[in-house]
UniProtKB/TrEMBL annotation:
It comes from Natronobacillus azotifigens. Coiled coil: none annotated. One of the essential components for the initiation of protein synthesis. Protects formylmethionyl-tRNA from spontaneous hydrolysis and promotes its binding to the 30S ribosomal subunits. Also involved in the hydrolysis of GTP during the formation of the 70S ribosomal complex. This is Translation initiation factor IF-2. The chain holds residues 113 to 482 of 689 of the full protein. GO terms for molecular function: GTP binding; GTPase activity; translation initiation factor activity. It is found in: Cytoplasm.
């Protein structure tokens, strides 16, 4: 931080040193002309004189957010929605994800072996939609705890023969906390005992009221198992996406979030990323959480090698020095040296934090032993 003496400050402000000293006295500070003043005191005095000081913001070079530029409005274009499927256990989340994927992978692509990379993209009426296939709750909790938001729309699956259950409520709370629009998928409509009215009735308690009843929540009845109602659901997703006006800048710096990551025996660190802005390319120097490297290869959700991917697209990359964590942010750098420098600095910081935690724990342990 910078310091100025009383005399220097007086000169800068075009005042007499005695005036500054008077102001300081009023603040309860006895000072001489050669006294150093700290930033806060300088600011106080300036504001007393009606002068606003622009504080030089301290930049944290290791903070990845520091590299995310504001996008120019005219460069923004529509991007696909990123959808998370949530709901109580056994209400049909996995079945629905499988059903959507299988009915929508086009004939030409069907031969490709679908690859599990934590998310996939389909097309409905020519429009892409990205689905996260990590369990919705985990995606919300682990990612949101790290400040990452990847979901644009939440699908809440409720089995029509079971109704609202504890994890249904949990899912509602997550989506509401994240301020994400919710579409209700009333599932298992093929089952005897399916009672969609009951589901609607129960959900009114959570301010999820169907349009027919004067609310604005979209309900879609379906059978994930039989593939009934899937098209309606996709149509509604695109409708909500349009209202949300989801945009990104493919020309911007590539940034996004880790969906999942692991150490692969043959390939080393493998990370599934969701590109949220910009375009990610093979060869890009990259910092991912506290790891870094150069994008060596990219594989999409159909198991195909790709050279570049744009916003809202999931992709699996290799080339990182270590394994990042789900929810970590990534940022691409133009210059590999810079990426390395930032990555190493972040790693160093992490080590220090860990050390700090350890000493704290051992201190507590010590007290416990007494
Ligand atoms: P998850 O725990 O929410 O992922 O639920 P699953 O997708 O694993 O489904 C739990 C069980 O419900 C499985 O036996 C599914 O076959 C079954 N199931 C899922 N959707 C439907 C459906 O639409 N109709 C019927 N009859 N069964 C379904
Ligand atoms: Mg499941």
């Amino acid at each position: 931080a910078n310091t100025l003496t009383v005399g220097e400050l007086a000169e800068k402000l075009g005042k007499d040193a005695s005036e500054i000293i008077k102001k300081l006295m009023a603040l309860g500070v006895m000072a001489t002309k050669n006294q150093d003043l700290d930033d806060d005191t300088i600011e106080l005095i300036c504001s007393d004189f009606g002068i606003e000081v622009e504080k030089e913001e301290e930049v944290d070079e290791t903070d990845l957010n520091h590299y995310i530029e504001a996008d120019l409005e005219e460069q923004l274009i529509e991007r696909p929605p990123v959808v998370t499927i949530m709901g109580h256990v056994d209400h049909g989340k996995t079945t629905l994800l499988d059903s959507i994927r299988h009915t929508k992978v086009t004939a030409g692509e069907a031969g490709g072996i679908t690859q599990h990379i934590g998310a996939y993209q389909i097309k409905s009426n020519g429009k892409p939609i990205t689905f996260l296939d990590t369990p919705g709750h985990a995606a919300f909790t682990s990612m949101r705890s790290r400040g990452a938001q990847v979901t644009d729309i939440a699908i809440l699956v409720v089995a029509a023969d079971d109704g609202v259950m504890p994890q249904t409520v949990e899912a509602i709370n997550h989506a509401k906390a994240a301020d994400v629009p919710i579409i209700i998928a009333v599932n298992k409509m093929d089952k005897e005992g399916a009672n969609p009215d009951r589901v609607m009735q129960e959900l009114t308690e959570y301010e999820l009221i169907p349009e027919d009843w004067g609310g604005n929540t979209i309900f879609v009845q379906l059978s994930a198992l039989q593939g009934e109602g899937i098209d309606d659901l996709l149509e509604m997703i695109l409708l909500v996406a349009e209202v949300e006006e989801l945009k990104a800048n493919p020309e911007g710096r590539a940034v996004g979030t880790v969906i999942e990551a692991e150490l692969d025996k043959g390939r080393g660190s493998v990370a599934s990323l969701l590109v949220q802005n910009g375009t990610l390319r093979v060869g890009d120097p990259i910092v991912v959480g506290n790891t870094f490297g150069r994008v060596r290869a990219m594989v999409n959700d159909l198991g195909r090698r790709v050279k570049k991917v744009g916003p809202s697209t999931p992709v699996e990359i290799t080339g990182l020095n270590e394994v990042p964590q789900a929810g970590d942010r990534f940022v691409v750098f133009e210059d590999e040296k810079k990426a390395r420098q930032i990555g190493e600095a972040r790693q160093q910081k992490q080590i220090e934090v860990r050390r700090g935690d350890q000493s704290k724990v051992s201190l507590e342990d010590l007290f416990e032993q007494i």
